[in-house]
Design goal:
alpha+beta, GMP Synthetase, Chain A, domain 3, 2 domains, 3-stranded antiparallel beta sheet, two-stranded antiparallel ribbon
């Protein structure tokens, strides 16, 4: 898999993968990359919860996931991420633990638990005449 990171203007740093564009930036109109990273944790868990519910015909419109990031010092490194899956009263109680297990399948979470290595380098592509 390959993703192209490019700089469309003074404030933005975007990513292109296939036919999708992901905009990030340092302005009031796009999320900063770290905010997008944080959101990827909760939204990834949400994808798994939604899939679990869809397979069982359970409506998801009233389900919310509240994500809290905890650190010892203000603006310090995040030491814990809490996902509070808020279910409506009519949600079948027999599935409460299963919803947690579904959220735990999140690919972002699994990659954080077993992080990839990084290989950062420079290359200068040759110009094609």
């Amino acid at each position: 898999m390959e993703m192209e990171i490019y700089f469309p203007n003074e404030e933005r740093v975007n990513a292109r993968i296939g036919n999708m564009e992901i905009e990030t930036g340092n302005d009031a109109f796009t999320p900063a990359p770290f905010l997008l990273f944080l959101a990827s944790m909760g939204t990834c868990a949400g994808v798994y919860v939604k899939s679990f519910c869809r397979r069982r015909g359970i409506p998801t419109g009233d389900i919310r996931i509240i994500q809290r990031m905890k650190s010892r010092i203000p603006n310090g490194p995040i030491e814990e991420v809490e996902l509070d899956i808020q279910l409506p009263p009519e949600f079948p109680e027999k599935y409460h633990d299963a919803v947690i297990r579904a959220a735990d399948q999140c690919a972002v979470k699994k990659h954080l638990e077993n992080p990839p290595g990084f290989n950062v380098h420079v290359s200068v592509p040759e110009l094609v005449a």
